[in-house]
Design brief:
385 residues; mainly alpha; Fic-like fold; 2 domains; 57% helix
Length: 385
């Protein structure tokens, strides 16, 4: 599989660019129509180089514990947006992920779905688990198992034409198998090309959503397959796609995705959006790393009841303005435009941070919260948004 650092092979890329008069590169998918997914090659090579260097600069992939918190937040976001859960409280989902990763058995249907996604995520990280038809079928079966579906009958979990989808324009259900096989063949063909990196990973993500092959969990499948490709490209790559920031800006994302089929399958705009989301999650991850170091250096082990309160602090630190209101913090935990934490729950979490002299309140018509701890203020000012 082509390395994430494919852009360092200047000689091969220059030859490829020389052969492209328009500088527009086309994939060979979708395979059932004439239009193909396409992008400005020069622009995307530069963008891949920038975001890879940015991630390397802040070494977010090398710090397991702080990154694990953000990784759990991404999986939480994934499940809240597409897990068809009964309990959509972020704290419940986050804590269930943590406990299931530690070995606790699933206790109900929601937790079976969470367990399936965690197991699928673990599977795609295996070094010899290549992307092919058989492994993809196993991967999909893990996501859909133990929830009352007959996995021997595709009609029980394959999308039909009248099923609701995340986006307006998807391929007819009778083309699903053809397009899925075409996508797997495309991914395998990337081993022989000089192009790779985040652009190809996000192209895979987009194509799965355009196919939307299943009655549910298409966003989960798209995210994990795209991540699977990244692992095959670089086994040291630990950060997930920026699912938290994508779901937090869902309306813009869906709008850009809907535009793909109406703009001759040009994907430059949505690629830019996803990379912008990734950069912000790198910032959150790096700030969370610095917060963890501050906690360790000051021996502040008992400031938080759980990791979820650390996430709230990381998001307050990451917020671009000095002060943040309760409503604005709740917005940071909105997914697809829905607030997932009640006003009372958030007030209780924030009060814990105030009681521990991490935040202070600024009275007024609308109560605002502001960092009190000087080291945390420095961390906030470290990265420009």
């Amino acid at each position: 599989m082509t390395s994430l650092n494919y852009f360092l092979d200047k000689k091969s890329l220059n030859k490829l660019l020389k052969d492209l008069e328009s500088k527009i590169w086309e994939a060979n998918i979708p395979i059932s129509i004439n239009n193909k997914l396409r992008f400005n090659l020069i622009k995307q090579i530069e963008a891949d180089s920038y975001i890879t260097d940015y991630m390397n600069a802040y070494k977010v992939n090398n710090q397991y514990a702080p990154l694990q918190i953000i990784n759990n937040l991404d999986i939480t976001s994934l499940l809240l947006i597409d897990g068809d859960l009964t309990n959509k409280t972020p704290e419940y989902v986050y804590n269930a992920i943590v406990e299931i990763r530690r070995g606790r058995k699933a206790m109900n249907t929601d937790e079976k779905i969470i367990w399936n996604v965690v197991e699928a995520y673990n599977l795609i990280q295996k070094e010899q688990f290549e992307i092919n038809e058989d492994n993809f079928e196993l991967f999909v079966h893990i996501i859909f198992r133990n929830i009352g579906l007959d996995l021997d009958n595709k009609n029980s979990y394959y999308r039909q034409d009248n099923d609701k989808t995340l986006i307006k324009s998807v391929f007819p259900f009778d083309l699903i198998d053809e397009e899925l096989l075409g996508l797997i063949d495309y991914i395998k063909s990337l081993k022989k090309t000089k192009l790779g990196g985040f652009t190809q990973s996000y192209l895979i993500f987009i194509q799965v959503l355009l196919i939307s092959p299943y009655r549910k969990y298409n966003f989960i499948v798209a995210t994990l397959l795209s991540q699977w490709y990244l692992y095959q490209s670089n086994l040291n790559y630990k950060m997930m796609h920026p699912i938290y920031k994508i779901t937090n800006n869902w309306k813009e994302f869906i709008g850009l995705l809907d535009e793909v089929s109406s703009k001759d399958f040009t994907i430059d705009s949505i690629l830019e959006f996803i990379r912008r989301a990734l950069k912000e999650e790198v910032n959150i991850s790096y700030r969370n790393l610095l917060i963890e170091k501050w906690l360790k250096n000051n021996k502040c082990k008992n400031l938080f009841k759980n990791d979820f309160q650390k996430i709230i602090l990381a998001l307050v630190v990451n917020y671009p303005k000095v002060e943040i209101s309760l409503q604005q913090i709740r917005h940071e935990f909105s997914f697809a435009g829905e607030f997932c934490i009640s006003k009372k729950e958030m007030e209780e979490h924030l009060q814990t941070l105030v009681d521990n002299k991490i935040l202070i309140t600024k009275p007024g018509q609308t109560v605002k919260y502001q960092l009190l701890e000087k080291e945390l203020i420095k961390i906030k000012l470290l990265l420009a948004q």
